Structures are given as C-alpha cells and as structure tokens.
Amino acid sequence: MSVSAKVFSPKEWKVALISDATNAGSTGIGSTMLQLDVDSIGMPSLNPNQVLDVRSGAGRTFKDEDFFQDNVLRVVEISLSGTLHSDAAHKQLLQNITNNTSSENGIVATNHTGTDQRYGDNVSNNCSSLTLVVQPSDVTNQQALEFFGCVVTSFAISADANSEGGRYKFSATLQTGKKPDLASTATPTITPYLNTDMPTLSNGSGIRTMGKEVVLNTFTTTIEHPAVFSGLTTSGYEVVGRGAEIAVTTETQVKYDANTKTMINDYDTQTAANTSDSFVIINNNAFGINIDNAVYTNVALSEGDMMMLDVALKSVDNGTNPLITVDVTS
Length: 330
Prior knowledge:
330 residues; mainly beta; twelve-stranded mixed beta sheet; 5% helix
C-alpha cells in the first residue's frame, strides 16, 4: 500500500443526532439526522478495558500472552460544545436529560426520578435514547463514528454579554453503554442548522437573580443527571438508569449596585432557600430559564472595569415547583 496524498481539515466532520425508535436502535445511519453546531470535533472517550500487568513468568517484562482487552462492557463518553440553536437538534439534548418529549419544555419536575431503560425496548418518549454520529465528508477515505443508545448526563446553557453579541452557547456530555460502530461508511442525510434561530441575551427580559432585578454580564446554568449502566449482553450493557440526584446549578456575574449589595450578607446568613425568581431570563421559546427556589453556594466580589459579583446558586425542590423550567416550545 502506497502513501495516501489525501489531507482532511478538522472542519470537514459533522456531528449529528436522531432520536432512536428503540433504545440503542440503529436508526441513525440511513435516516435523516439533525446537525449540531459544535465548535470542534473532540475525540470521544472510548474507555476499552485493558489489562497490561506483568504476570508471573520469565523476566520482568510484559508478554504478549499477558495482554487482555475488552470493548463490550464499557461506558463510552462524548463531550460536545458549541453555539445553541432553537431547533429540534439542540432541544433534544435538553429534553433527553430532563426526560421530556420534543413537544414539551425542559422541565425538572418536583420529585423527579428520571427514566430507566432497557436497551432494545421501545423508547419511553422520543427523546429518551439518542444515536449520535461523527460524520466525515468522504466515507471512501474516512470512516464515521456512530454511537447508539446515548443519554445526556450533563447539559449547560451559557452566554456572555461581551462575547459574540451575547449568543447562547451549550456544552453537553453524553454516555452510552452500547458498543459503538467506529468504522461506518454509511452516508446518512443530515439536515444542517440555520443561522436565524440562535438565542441571545439581548432578546432576554425580566432578568432576576435571587428575587432581585440585576444587570447581568454572564451566566451558566447546568443540569447534571449521571447515568448508571448494568446488565450483560454481547453488544454492551443491557440497562441504563439514572443516578441518585439530578442537580441544577447556576453561576452568574451581575453588577454590584444598590439592588445586589446585600447578596454577600444574604449568602452568609441564609437559613433557607429563596422562594421566588431565584434565576429568571424570559426568552420565549428560545431557552428562557425559570428557577423559583434556590440557595446561594457562593457570592464573591469580582474586580473588572466595574465592580461585579460572582454568584453561584443551586436549585431546591420545595415539593411544588419544578427545579427548573427551560422554555423551548411555542
């Protein structure tokens, strides 16, 4: 085999997803997939099980017969980040972690328990199991990476008023307990994202932090819901469940002024959760955020061109209100 002259740019790969018809079903390749607007293509963590220990024998070296590798019972993790869009693709990341359907807002309801799934069964809703593909531009000289049965374990929404006009950004972590196809040459139809549906801070209104009207500089709201895999099959784990807690946290930077001057003392002396407008950005159908109940986890002065406050919050379940509502439906 002679040396190949082909050269590829890192920007020639796409990341796309689709809801599975069955959990971990191979619906992605050959179906119309939806493209995510990612900053770059990061290598997934494949995490094969390897045993590289030196065994008893002649000398003190690692022998060929000592080597063992298993790529079935392992958890594969994919991390993504990019620009957020108010479209079906990006909404599915949110709706997967909150266990909502594509026609619902992203809501972590009071006493949320998540959904346990058996791979191969019909999905509980159309966002409960995802197929994600890292698709190259030329499957003759490249190979696609396809990951079945993914669940989102972390999803963050962020924006900075001083960067890119306050465009919303996202980051997400997905995991699967199924053996991926890392040598696919299929060519699914991929619907691209648009440049006309990006939420921005300038479209937000009614901004509140811990019940106070604030001048917002930046924010990051993160939903974390770990996955737990169990059971045995020849293609990976059999069951995926969710961990002990779904947590919602927010970190925001606001202007230090007459409205926010008490926040440092409020943090130090709090004895219970704030119960109204703990973090609110009204952005209708475009990832608006409403958190009713929260506690401070940190407040600190932040020096810059003007004095700011870095404020960190954790959402609290009061038995009535959702932990968070993210407005993504009309």
